[in-house]
Fold this sequence. Notes:
Shape: rod-shaped
Distance between the termini: 54 Å
Strand content: under 5%
Amino acid sequence: MDNDVEEMLTSLKKAIQEDRNNYDRVLNDPLFKNVKSHVLVLRDNILQETRLKTEKELSYLETSFKQYTNIPNTIKLPESIVEMIEKTKNDITEIKRKMKNNSYFDYLNSLDRITNLNITVLNIRGELIDFRGSSKNYLNSLETNLRNANLHIDETDKKLSTLTALYFGTIIIALISLFCFYKIIKMNSEPGGDLGIYEPYIIGALMGIGIVIGKFADVDKEFTILTSLFRGIVWGIYAGVAYFILTIGLIIIGFFSETLSDTIFEIILVVSAIFLFASIIPDKNISKEKTILNDEKRNINNIKSAISENKLIVSTLKSF
Length: 320
């Protein structure tokens, strides 16, 4: 090959590199008619160089992209990242299909697409880094929420235990008071019954009435066992005053009709006993606290699940 032909082919190669359309134009250009065989060799060399370059660039792309295709399905990635990964997969498959044509223009188009895909892969990496950072921040927030939720559930559990103890304590006191009422009614029905004889039973009955009244008077309030007992004593004093007034009234009525006085007294005792049975009605505060406790348990389970999920995200994406 003389120098003129070699220079011409060098210029031709440069022209093809500057304008890809010259790759086909040279076949029909009369200027290269006499050196067509050299032109064909040049075209083939350019084709092979382009093929090798495309394969090399594609291999680099697949290597850098592979780490993103190995992310476990258990990681719930943002939809935008999932879409970029899926689109890149499809584009790589399409590039490989085009390269099988062994066409110069398909190789060039593939190189252009590979360049764009390299940018996409960088964007995927950036998105994953941001996602990992936000997941880590969210994880810290979840762990704080879990600590607070555990503290709150402990408070709710203690409150529920106190309410339950108050409820059953009230029932026990009510039963004791019922026994006192029974003794009062029984002793009152005996000949020669005297109120002074069963004053201890009256005190017990009044205390029970006071505690039960205290429970229903402040049904929406929350008390400890000590404050509940204190309020029972206060209401018991109120009941004692009412009983004192009632006793005076019954004594006055007794001057006119002892039978009527005894009947009224026993009716009042029976009504009071029935009122004590009301303490057995389930405390709505207990039901409310149980509902709150169950909701808090579900919330803690949800937080724990979210913590596990975000820990997996942070650890899996640690290499990015």
